[in-house]
Write a structure and sequence with these properties.
By secondary structure, the chain is α+β, with helices and mostly antiparallel strands. It is built from 32 helices and 29 strands. Strands 1, 2, 3, 5, 6, 7, 8, 9, 10, 13, 14 and 15 form a twelve-stranded antiparallel β-sheet that branches. Helix 22 packs parallel to helix 24. 36% of the residues are buried.
Length: 933
């Protein structure tokens, strides 16, 4: 067999400042740049494809004539390698994905300075300087276009070339193999490589017009969704590597135009149909160049496919049929496989034969450039994992990174998903990963959705029952804790107790309650002994005594009596200075006679005054001591309020229904129906517990208790938020939020949402009811407007009403398109059961997959039979982790479906492989175990 040496088309690499120049055999030199395509796959933005097009059009214009622009998009298969974790469920997650195949995409851009063919190479310092300056400009333009350019150094260029030669982009050590080219493919080791040239120069089967992107048409829900023209490359079956080689040669404009004019005249001279079509094509091209000042370029496009021998034909057929669907018929005469393979090498566009070039405008040529990039993990210290659209784990930061780059201004979240869309699984997945960090979680649940995680993390699971209600004493605080926020909370609570969640409270009523709360704590914190009657009170008593005193001589003339009494009170000197006689009732009385009479009257008045002062002092002292508050709770507040409010009404002459207030609030006072709720202290360990679930499903229909208990729980969270400064704080409110989404609670909700931001916290509201959010001003103003992150599960059920949802959540048309790709892509092969979720941080969102291991599924499940079966194992083995391990082991051992195995265990009432000795050893309480069994 004849053997030929494969000679590389390079002289070597020369380091020039920050660039490593790759020199070709004819003296041409290139810079190789690694970039990221700026358009993320499934971005849903047609504008993004246009922006990419404009970005590379600018690159071509900067480089100018006499250059090649070569772009490599390398698609390679890889197997997921999971990290190690010391945490049980996280390691199960890693094991679930270990070895899962997925596609990686790497993109490279090579810019080559041509030399005149056949000319002897002469070093040109000016040309080299101009080239480096152009590359600098290109790097700047690419960076501004979010392409993240990195110029490769010598070692990286060498490795890139070797990987192309070996068709191996995954091995750490690249090994070159012999090549055996044929008319249809090249064999490299055990791998077969086929080059598919997009353009057949003999027929040029291309669409008459082309866009920067295509639109999906195969599914009604995805119709009109923008994708890359070559997005089908991600779906090629059974390939190992694909290299999409895209090359543009920026030709001399005047020379090429002159050639076209000459060609047009030649074809015009022979007026047959084929020539007339050719003339028309040339005229359209010349018109576009003249009208829009477009650049003329030669272009070449080649898809190089690598696969096993048994799969390569099927993969090639898929590519060719996909090209045909948008009007491209690839060349069937690509016998020059080795020649096409060599042209894929970076900086080697000089070897592209004339019959593999196609003349068009730069704008048209760039439409064929691949524009998409795959989603990548975010670099952050606060990470949680979902899957990308392929089904492999990807890391994202739901809070800190978007806060740091100003994508969001708060960490609060709003979660909406109809029943059955995986909402609980999504929240369980978030919570489990949140617990990997220093986070305090308070969950208000109405559906037993988090009992599994609570058992796993040994959290506090508090269920409301009539025998053991959830009790708090929000009135019991220290003087330091009493501030405007606590005052507002208590005002909201009292208003809620009185008016109910749907009631309205007037400004006067609100002010009266605030006054009473202030007075209540003032009396408690600063109580003193009764200071005595005030000067105003004493003066009022004296005036009352004088007015009430009557003497027969003056009983018909009160005013005259008072005037005489006042005269008497004057000093003796003043009376002696009076001249003449005072006229009374048309009689003249001597002042000395008045003095004698007044002395007698004064003695009587003083005695009565002293008695009245003593009596009023006793009454006031009694009332003062009544207001002495020995214990802070609702009982003492109620007693204080029903005494204080009548005083306020009397003094300020304001309307206030004290009878209604007293009657309605009485049910929470001692002896009342709900007297325990606001008078018994809560479990003090709650303030240091990291995982707390309040399960209040039993009262979700109770119009009185539901909002009150929910509000009280929120206050527990606020207290934890203030005094657990080293921990993040997260409050999750499931459907319970409906209990407090009323005008009465609006100001408190706004306060809660704005306060959590200051204390490293976040509030998450979760709902499934569309009717509860549309048209609810409180939801919009208090919750949604203060939640910069929106999480949407499958919205197909809401599709008819989605315009209203989009308006409420300020969702743009582009984001709407993303949302309706949820669970609609053909990405379910070789995956476990999963659902997808759209997470918008700020104005832009992404779709992620929620896929978990069987261990996590069993921990998250909300199915009652599955919960009961796990509980059987948990009780038997005394550890949630051991329970999961034994449950899954027994499930595999029986070879039953999960549903059948669950039914079997629940019927049996004990683990499948049951060992009493093991139970006794594990629990160390033989008598108790035997008795319970």
């Amino acid at each position: 067999m004849r053997r030929n040496e494969f000679k590389l088309p390079y002289m070597g690499i020369d380091k020039q400042d920050e660039y490593s120049l790759l020199y070709g055999l004819q003296g041409e030199f290139s810079v190789v740049i690694k970039i990221t395509n700026p358009v993320e796959q499934y971005s849903a933005s047609s504008d993004a494809y246009d922006e990419f097009h404009n970005l590379f059009l600018n690159v071509v214009k900067i480089i100018g004539e006499g250059h090649y622009v070569q772009k490599h998009d390398v698609f390679l298969k890889a197997a997921y390698e999971s990290p190690e974790s010391t945490e049980y469920l996280q390691q199960k997650y890693n094991d679930h994905f270990e070895g899962r195949p997925y596609i990686l995409l790497e993109t490279y851009l090579s810019i080559t300075r041509k030399v005149k063919k056949g000319a002897f190479y002469v070093y040109n310092a000016k040309a080299l300087l101009e080239f480096k300056q152009s590359i600098g400009k290109v790097m700047g333009v690419l960076a501004s276009g979010n392409a993240r350019p990195i110029a490769l150094d010598e070692a990286q260029v060498n490795l890139f070339v070797k990987r192309l030669l070996a068709m191996d982009f995954s091995s750490k050590n690249v090994v070159l193999n012999n090549m055996k080219p044929t008319d249809t493919e090249i064999r490299i080791g055990d791998r077969y490589v086929r080059n598919i040239s997009l353009i057949n120069i003999d027929t040029i089967d291309l669409p008459s017009s082309i866009s920067t992107h295509a639109e999906l048409k195969d599914k009604e829900s995805l119709k009109g969704f923008p994708v890359d023209l070559f997005s089908f490359l991600f779906k090629v079956p059974n390939f190992d590597f694909i290299v999409f080689n895209q090359v543009i040669e920026i030709v001399g404009q005047m020379t090429t135009l002159n050639k076209l004019e000459l060609k047009k005249r030649r074809h015009s001279g022979i007026p047959d149909p084929a020539n007339l079509i050719c003339v028309k094509d040339i005229e359209q091209l010349l018109e576009a160049v003249a009208k829009d000042n477009q650049l003329l370029v030669n272009c070449h496009f080649n898809i190089m496919l690598a696969a096993d021998k048994e799969h390569i034909q099927k993969a090639a057929n898929f590519i060719e049929s996909s090209l045909f669907q948008f009007g491209i018929t690839p060349s069937q005469n690509a016998y020059n496989q080795l020649e096409l393979f060599r042209c894929v090498l970076p900086g080697n566009a000089t070897e592209i034969a004339v019959y593999d070039w196609f003349l068009t405008t730069a704008e048209a040529a760039l439409c064929f450039f691949f524009k998409e990039a795959l989603a990548v993990s975010e670099e952050s210290k606060f990470q949680i994992r979902f899957t990308d659209r392929q089904g492999v784990p990807i890391v994202m930061d739901p809070a800190d990174l978007p806060m740091a780059n100003r994508r969001i201004t708060n960490r609060n979240k709003f979660v909406l998903g109809p029943s059955g869309t995986g909402k609980s699984f999504f929240m369980n997945a978030v919570i489990e990963q949140y617990m990997m960090y220093d986070i305090d979680l308070v969950i208000v649940d109405t559906g037993d959705s988090y009992s599994g995680l609570s058992d796993y993390f040994k959290g506090k699971y508090i269920t409301y029952t009539e025998q053991k209600p959830i009790t708090m004493n929000p009135f019991a605080i220290s003087e330091e804790e009493y501030n405007i926020e606590k005052k507002n909370f208590l005002g909201t609570l009292v208003g809620l107790l009185w008016k109910g969640a749907d009631g309205n409270i007037s400004q006067v009523e609100r002010d009266v309650i605030a006054h009473v709360i202030d007075s209540y704590y003032e009396h408690h914190f600063h109580f003193k002994e009764f200071p005595g009657l005030s000067e105003a009170q004493l003066s009022a008593i004296r005036d009352r005594i004088i007015t009430s005193f009557r003497d027969s001589a003056f009983e018909d003339n009160d005013q005259e009596y008072i005037r005489l009494y006042n005269l008497y009170l004057r000093s003796k000197e003043e009376l002696e200075e009076e001249e003449g006689i005072i006229e009374i009732s048309q009689e003249v009385l001597n002042v000395n006679q008045i003095r004698e009479q007044m002395v007698r009257y004064n003695e009587i008045i003083e005695n009565r005054y002293e008695a009245a002062v003593a009596k009023q002092t006793r009454i006031a002292t009694y009332r003062w001591n009544l207001n002495k508050i020995t214990e802070l709770n609702f009982n003492s507040f109620y007693e204080f309020a029903i005494r204080k409010i009548p005083q306020i009404i009397l003094e300020d002459e304001i309307p206030f229904d004290i009878k209604e207030f007293t009657y309605v609030l009485k049910k929470f006072y001692k002896g009342g129906e709900f007297d325990r709720i606001l008078n018994e202290r809560s479990d003090q360990s709650l303030f240091t517990e990291r995982f707390i679930v309040f399960e209040i499903d039993s009262i979700k229909e109770h119009k009185v208790l539901f909002p009150i208990v929910t509000l009280i729980i929120m206050d527990v969270f606020l207290q934890k938020m203030r005094y657990r400064s080293k921990f993040r704080k997260v409050l999750i409110i499931e459907e319970a939020w409906k209990a407090i989404a009323s005008p009465l609670m609006a100001s408190y909700l706004v306060y809660l949402y704005k306060t959590v931001r200051k204390f490293w916290g976040e509030a998450i509201v979760v709902t499934q009811e569309l009717g509860d959010i549309i048209g609810n001003a409180v939801v919009k103003d208090s919750i949604i407007n203060n939640s910069d992150t929106v999480c949407l599960l499958d919205q197909v059920k809401f599709k008819d009403n989605f315009k209203e949802i989009a308006a409420l959540l300020s969702i743009s048309e582009v984001e709407r398109r993303k949302i309706f790709t949820i669970n609609q892509l053909e990405n379910k092969d070789n995956r476990g059961k999963f659902s997808e979720v759209y997470i918008r941080r700020g104005s832009v969102g992404e779709v992620y997959g929620v896929e978990v291991s069987l261990s996590q599924y069993l921990t998250y499940t909300t199915e009652k039979p599955e919960k009961l079966a796990i509980a059987v194992y948990n009780y038997a083995f005394g550890s949630y982790q051991d329970a999961l391990d034994h449950f899954i082991s027994d499930l595999k051992d029986t070879r039953l479906s999960l549903d059948d195995f669950v039914a079997f265990i629940n019927k049996k009432g004990k683990p499948h492989r049951f060992s009493l000795d093991h139970l006794i050893k594990t629990n160390n309480h033989e008598e108790t175990i035997v008795h319970q069994l």
